Amino acid sequence: GSPRASLRDADVLTPAVGDWLLLIAAMLATGAFAGVLAGLFGIGGGVVIVPVLDTALSILGVDPAIRMHMAVGTSLATIVPTSISSSRAHWQRQSVDLDVVKRWSGYVLVGALAGAWIAAQVHSRVLAIVFAVIALLVAARMVFMPEVRSVTNELPRRAWVPIIPTLIGMFSALMGIGGGVMSVTALSLFGMRIHRAVGTAALLGLAISIPGTLGFVAAGWNDPRVPPGSIGYVSLVGFACIASTTILTAPLGARLAHAINERRLSLLFGLFLALVAVRLLVRALA
Question: How far apart are CA 235 and CA 273, in angstroms?
């Protein structure tokens, strides 16, 4: 109980408090930015949330083997309220195709559970690489093919069609995203108008985010490496900070979407996504 010992303890505590404050500030800012993106592009914001959380958790000294699991699980949890508020707004504008939601949501849900299970079996580095590669493909589409030309005029009912929502669910749960970008692209290819595709994708995001979140909670339930304030691989601190600001800024993004030229919007988002993906790839392969 000497003064020197208690001073030493204080030295150990001070950076930890500073790190927590920095983490909270970073998460509030991330939520605000993700909310704007959600409104702008009809996405859950996971493409922003995952890399920022990964960085924030590394500052806190979370074990690298589970860092990406924590980032992805927490991101999926924040997408639940975002999807609810986004799909409600689109529902009021009659831009949600309930028939597609009914036909696709079961497959999306199965895919999301499979994705969460696969994620639990692999090292964080593998998750980072999967995220980066898919993000680069999406970025390339946004930059080079912003206007998706439809292949058919209606959703085909052939036997292979359920593969599409199943894969959307699986890759979205692996990446910690609501699947908006993938769902909107797929629905546009089947001739659905963009606003209707965005609204439908927002509701399908719930069929990804809820089972995905539960999968990550279950996978990390007894893992001793998770940081304090977590249930499984979901950080409750991260969820509270990000979800609170996302909900506030989503309407701003929706307003901005109507003020900016659509081609320029796709280009900006694609370039931003490419930067994020390259940075994650470099870190994962280093």
Answer: 24
